[in-house]
Specification:
This protein has 15 helices and 6 strands. It has helices spanning about 55-65, 65-75, 110-130, 150-165, 185-200, 200-205, 210-220, 230-240, 245-260, 260-270, 275-280, 290-300, 305-310, 320-330, 340-345; strands at about 30, 40-45, 85-90, 95-100, 135-140, 170-175. It has a 6-stranded mixed β-sheet, with helices on both faces. Strand 3 and strand 4 form a beta hairpin.
Length: about 350
């Protein structure tokens, strides 16, 4: 099995957003939630080869679904490692339960990684076959089967992301443990140092100001337009008529310049197709700042190009915003791996990039 390369793969994005300006789903979303309470078309249950009731999440799924789930599982003749089988959800909020058997982690061989990837692939294909539009996974094999959480997470994101590049489905990855998002010590230290060197504490900045002198300065510098209103209005109309390209226009231009398809761009940015359609059809569409940054990273824009795109949407990079500083750090280091960027944002308790 070929090892996963996050810099080369297209779908490396996940979302753990606390604030969303666009109320719309994204293709792959990382959430902290109770999987059994997810109101989706199907949830994935980590099972054993006999599909019998075990402890942990599997046992909880069976308990809440009711006895009929166990009875249906007995008719499926078991399940091999990496395979997936489907049943009804019965008393669960989800219509279906997809059962898959993850590998037990021993040596970290390629066979184990391939088996884990097959769990996601086969579950996704089964959900597609049953016309599921929404699907929720746990982090398979990362519990009592012992698969290291960071490795399990990367295989999950890579496999799901690859599927979503070719298919339309909203997938949730339910992750409880923040340890799954473990930055290397060096990367964490480097980012922390960069934040310490660049972060502007707004409270400190404001404490140095005096509003009265600022207001006086404003009054002193404000010209009088008395008797010149017609001239001012004329100049204003001229400026409006010469307005620069919008965010939407710049985004589409950059996509053309990069020579990529629209679908590659919005999926690489983990942006929902419906949201991208809104942006494309509305030349004056106003995105959230997080969305702009996601597109900038997906298009691998330089820092100056990123700043230009932000300005088109009415934003700017700020030294008083840790998200901005972290994104700036990665751009300056020519690292457009959104998985790592979001991993860093998560580690510093910031909103993650995406729709």
């Amino acid at each position: 099995m070929t090892s996963f390369s996050f810099a080369e793969k297209l779908a490396k994005i996940f979302i753990y957003s606390k604030i969303k300006k666009e109320v719309i789903s994204v293709p792959l979303e990382i959430v902290r939630n109770d999987l059994t309470k997810m109101a989706v078309d199907a949830i994935v249950s980590p099972a054993n080869s006999s599909l019998s009731v075990t402890g942990g999440l599997n046992g909880e799924i069976h308990r809440l679904a009711g006895e009929k789930l166990s009875l249906e599982c007995k008719t499926l003749c078991g399940c091999n490692t990496g395979e997936a089988k489907i049943t009804k959800g019965y008393n669960l909020p989800s219509k279906y339960v997809i059962h898959t058997v993850g590998p037990v982690y021993k040596s970290g061989s390629e066979e184990e990684a391939e088996a884990l990837a097959n769990c996601y692939k086969n579950a996704l294909e089964l959900a597609k076959e049953y016309k599921c539009e929404t699907l929720a996974f746990p982090l398979i094999s990362s519990g009592k089967f012992g698969y290291p959480k960071d490795k399990a997470l990367r295989i999950a994101v890579d496999t799901i992301g690859g599927f979503l590049m070719e298919n339309d489905m909203t997938v949730y990855l339910v992750v409880y443990d923040k340890k799954a998002f473990s930055l290397s010590n060096k990367l964490f230290a480097d980012i922390k140092e960069y934040i310490d060197d660049n972060y502007l504490d707004l409270h400190t900045e404001f404490s140095r100001r005096r509003y009265a002198p600022a207001a006086a300065s404003f009054r002193a510098s404000t010209p009088s337009y008395e008797g010149e209103s017609c001239s001012v209005i004329s100049d204003l109309e001229k400026e409006i008529n010469e307005i620069d390209e919008s965010f939407s226009q710049m985004l589409l231009r950059k996509i053309d310049e990069k020579g990529i398809k629209d679908s590659v761009c919005y999926k690489k940015a983990n942006i929902d197709r419906k949201l991208f359609s809104k942006i494309r059809s509305n030349v004056n569409y106003k995105p959230s700042k997080i969305t702009v940054l996601a597109f900038a990273i997906a298009l691998e824009l330089s820092l100056s190009e990123t700043e230009e795109m932000l300005k088109k949407a009415g934003f700017a990079l700020s030294k008083s915003n840790k998200t901005d500083i972290i994104v700036e750090y990665f751009i300056k280091n020519s690292n457009y791996n959104i998985f790592e960027i979001n991993e860093a944002l998560f580690a510093f308790d910031q909103n993650l990039l995406g729709g």
